[in-house]
Fold this sequence. Notes:
Chain A is α+β, with helices and mostly antiparallel strands. Chain A is built from 20 helices and 11 strands. Chain A has helices at 2-16, 69-76, 89-118, 133-150, 157-164, 190-202, 209-225, 230-240, 262-272, 288-299, 349-359, 365-371, 406-422, 427-443, 448-461, 466-475, 479-489, 523-534, 539-552, 561-581; strands at 28-31, 37-42, 48-55, 168-174, 179-186, 278-284, 323-329, 334-341, 378-387, 392-400, 495-502. Chains A and B meet through helix 5, strand 4, helix 6, helix 7 and helix 10 of A and helix 4, strand 5, helix 6, helix 12 and strand 10 of B.
Amino acid sequence: xxxxxxxxxxxxxxxxxxxxxxxxxxxxxxxxxxxxxxxxxxxxxxxxxxxxxxxxxxxxxxxxxxxxxxxxxxxxxxxxxxxxxxxxxxxxxxxxxxxxxxxxxxxxxxxxxxxxxxxxxxxxxxxxxxxxxxxxxxxxxxxxxxxxxxxxxxxxxxxxxxxxxxxxxxxxxxxxxxxxxxxxxxxxxxxxxxxxxxxxxxxxxxxxxxxxxxxxxxxxxxxxxxxxxxxxxxxxxxxxxxxxxxxxxxxxxxxxxxxxxxxxxxxxxxxxxxxxxxxxxxxxxxxxxxxxxxxxxxxxxxxxxxxxxxxxxxxxxxxxxxxxxxxxxxxxxxxxxxxxxxxxxxxxxxxxxxxxxxxxxxxxxxxxxxxxxxxxxxxxxxxxxxxxxxxxxxxxxxxxxxxxxxxxxxxxxxxxxxxxxxxxxxxxxxxxxxxxxxxxxxxxxxxxxxxxxxxxxxxxxxxxxxxxxxxxxxxxxxxxxxxxxxxxxxxxxxxxxxxxxxxxxxxxxxxxxxxxxxxxxxxxxxxxxxxxxxxxxxxxxxxxxxxxxxxxxxxxxxxxxxxxxxxxxxxxxxxxxxxxxxxxxxx
Amino acid sequence: xxxxxxxxxxxxxxxxxxxxxxxxxxxxxxxxxxxxxxxxxxxxxxxxxxxxxxxxxxxxxxxxxxxxxxxxxxxxxxxxxxxxxxxxxxxxxxxxxxxxxxxxxxxxxxxxxxxxxxxxxxxxxxxxxxxxxxxxxxxxxxxxxxxxxxxxxxxxxxxxxxxxxxxxxxxxxxxxxxxxxxxxxxxxxxxxxxxxxxxxxxxxxxxxxxxxxxxxxxxxxxxxxxxxxxxxxxxxxxxxxxxxxxxxxxxxxxxxxxxxxxxxxxxxxxxxxxxxxxxxxxxxxxxxxxxxxxxxxxxxxxxxxxxxxxxxxxxxxxxxxxxxxxxxxxxxxxxxxxxxxxxxxxxxxxxxxxxxxxxxxxxxxxxxxxxxxxxxxxxxxxxxxxxxxxxxxxxxxxxxxxxxxxxxxxxxxxxxxxxxxxxxxxxxxxxxxxxxxxxxxxxxxxxxxxxxxxxxxxxxxxxxxxxxxxxxxxxxxxxxxxxxxxxxxxxxxxxxxxxxx
Lengths: 587, 501
């Protein structure tokens, strides 16, 4: 008795052990005279300063017609200023104006090409053969102007100055909510960073606008159009977020990217890149007093925006029904289930993060029930909770195990979720997840650059302080909270489901040769049937199916015949297999 | 006199209103900025290196800022140790070391314990090395090391975990023809190093099916031995205490293994010409290759700077500037000259452009190679490249984990033995490179007439260039255009043309 009591006490002691104290990052938070925010994190570990700034604008601030414009800035902001990038600013400006005039005429021709497309006279406005003769003429005129301008350009001067002075890792990134620009400079070059970043924020010049727009389209081809599931993923996001600005791709629609004008970019810049919509962050080896004075001297030059950036008024709609997308691609079969959840800093975002980690990973519930063991239905599965600025999603992805159908895998996901809606999570399991969140707060502090990224990511979604506050809220999550959010959000009408199956023959993947005779539009159905046959374990049910199909085969329309025969043949094979392995004692 | 002028200047500065001073203090161009001098001294092996009682070399760095410890064990050996017909064995063994349980703990129990401690334990065998790494909270160090010892000496290689890993590997294998990037990576390696080189002896369904638990056990016993190991550890510990703990980790090894043989060298001459893989995507992926060199080559720094100017230096480099910035033909375009560690590496330029401009962009890249070889680089280019090499050196050592990792890597790859002052002399060696050196290396390496060009994309469009720039792939190289069939993902044998439709 005493012994049991002791053991129980020991377990309790382990469970009650306070979570590893999470580290707080000391951040100096300043506002410059023009409303620009400045965060300073002095750290002496390495002789560098990682610097960045985040503009609180992303694809959610766009509208159809200019989708992708936020991301386009990520490229245009490296093209120079009055001081950087040209040998003759006045002539450069003149040539840009002249280029714009020609582009205006080209746009008139593009309108004609779109009209021809609508009438069915051409098949694709992007094909070189479909350009109007006038367009080709104008294009030559435009190319000549570009060539003329090139003689004045100091090409990629912005990059060259930084590179020559030892800066590295210069880049930028855009998502639905924010656009961020970052770089690391040697510790003695803080003033260089101040100069370069304030200069380009003060008055950037969008030179080489149209060739850079082409670069962005190549980026779209690289990431979306020429990857196995890129286009389907995009369609799924589109469907899942319909009615909300998260619906369109960050990189932009394929017809919007080549249609964005420089005038639209100028207007967008004036609205969203005002200093009062920007937070700059410095992490590294510097004197904060000196940095603050310097920032005021450099960034303080930039006037406050004329108009405040418009408030985002669109709220996520209430989604009334489950949405489904079934697609075929060069990929192993996979299933993705997403649920609509809550935005950044919402009180339910913390239990949702805990819930995701209870499901995720090798010791998570989904892996144990779906990937491991005899009843496995997946080769891999992941779960994550994402809270963006205006809305969130809870996402589960699974790769379907060979011989299983996507619906088997999908169903298994729901079985685990139902358990979490019903029963409270045991204390030790909850503690395991919390321990990992606590350790993560330390791991996230190991490098200046990652601290910078995390501060910018939080600030871009609304508040850098989440970096310190979020981990505490995670530690306060209870088993009841977890059950409540599972019940509230992981519902049927709140979800979107994508199932991908392998496109027939596309990538030379092994496939039943019998399928070749089956009409293409029927193949997905047949493949799914074959997959479920291959895993069927009930001989009686199989016999029944075979008998039924045999009796109906006479009335079958001829185009159905190859499919029926193939399914019949496989069903008979499976039955024979089952009868062979069946234990005699069962009879 | 000089002193007086200075005093005067200070006085004038004091008189000026702070506002005017602030405005005046922003120079018109950044080259007018003045920076305090800063000399960087890279970490030295002697401050971190020690030989443990077991003979294992360890690199240690203390850092008490965060309560974390990171331990990495490097293992000599790699996929080149896979016996013919047993491709995939090193990979499977490497994965299962940490994932397959130990004599005392079932895999599930081990995973649960690690997860509860929020400890990250991972293991793998790659091409030329194995790695076992442990990252955990300092308070759990002793328990973590005990687990590490079990994993290294008494792995369980649990049957169901072995089967699961094989299933997962087979699933990955089935995706081999799905992404044009994967196809490009694979065929590039075949063209660069030949079919027989170990890098290209990939696992197949047959080799995977044939792997048994006994194979895995034998591989472990033979190669996971302290005589093949090197350690890097950094974090919240005292060096002396960590050394004692590591002594314990390697003491009394229960089985006797063998020292891993050296990494083999390829015996292949690249065939010039254009090689095309038909894959239905609207962007062509192009790789343009030539023989490269060893990183211990006496001219390596000059060659690396040459490559940086050509296409390695990002937007300021020539290929990126022309293909991306001038012409808008690609998002990413550039070149790489990786100095080989064990054998000469390859020079490779690469980009991705819409199928109908891929040939035109290839022509530009080849043209830039010729221009660099036949012309001169500017002082500005040379200076930019040198500064970027010199001034970014500190970034390689930005955390104690990176410091110990990089120093251990020097020893693992034998440069510590041949050139122990490599990092100490690094900045001076870069500084020494002259324009003439760069030109010599361009002439030596950029044999633009002999390139091996690989392109993956939709064939019909690749061969039907945009009429604005009607460049033909066949005309770009000295060899003919060869169509390379896709390989059967499960056997890696080329498939008959047509079946890849």
